[in-house]
Amino acid sequence: MLPITFKMAKLADFRAPTTRILFGERLKQVAQIQSSIDAHGLLNPLVVMRHRNKLVVVDGKKRLAALRRMRFSGELPRSLVNVPYITTNQETCDRETPMSLLSNRERYEEVLKMRKMGYGLMQIAAELYVSKNCVRELLYITRLSPRLRKAFFSDTLTMAQARAFAALPSPEAQDQLFLALGPFANAPDILSAIEAGETVINIEDDNVIILPSRRPLTPYHTGPEDLAA
To answer: In this predicted structure, what is the pLDDT of residue 194?
Structure first.
């Protein structure tokens, strides 16, 4: 077994992917980690990924919180002025940066919560260490039918497929196309079917309505800042 080489960085150089208020069970767990660090030192390094010259912690967020609390109270051991870490590589927007450790539902809910609090796309992207495009794509999920949203949350649909289905303005039409094409259709095929007008909605008198071509996608609650490139 080859030895693992740790790198070292100051505590201030690390970032958590999201800010959490410590209380209840989580605070209790962090306090227990503090006690362990005080008695035995930091037994496991932080696992980070580099994003815009920052060390974003993807494994060890509670250890990071414990170290910060110890520094604040003046109890941080001198041996941990520099903290050991190892680097992992995680790319792409479908599973991007620290958000890759969250489920599809958690990623969507985290972005939507911040959007409803009045955050702009750039602010959300900066807070979560993801690209603005990734934030925009997650906001498209608000346009999916309940059936397709459930499929996305269960990883049946990819982000690219979800965005393609969201191009249809009608939730009923989304469901019809999903049932017709199945969960394995790729995004270009979905968009081609929409543009060809192949999706239909059955109505009570057995007539059908041919749906128009897909509409251009714009972000949820679009504002002037969201339209900027």
So the answer is: 82
Best-predicted range by mean pLDDT among 17-26, 40-49, 145-154, 174-183?
Answer: 145-154
User: What sign for the dihedral angle of Cα 71, 77, 80, 82?
Assistant: positive
Phi and psi of 78, rounded to 5°?
A: -65, -25
Residue 46 buriedness (CB in 10 A; 0-12 / 13-18 / 19+): buried
In whole angstroms, give the CA distance from residue 138 to residue 149. 11
Q: How many CB atoms lie within 10 A of CB 117?
A: 9
| Dihedral sign of CA atoms 195, 199, 203, 209 in order | positive
Say if residues 46 and 59 touch (Cβ distance below 8 Å). yes
Q: Give Cα separations from 49 to 14, 59, 176 (angstroms).
A: 10, 10, 41
Structural domains in the chain plus CATH codes: 7-87 (3.90.1530.10), 91-143 (no CATH), 158-213 (no CATH)
pLDDT of residue 69: 92
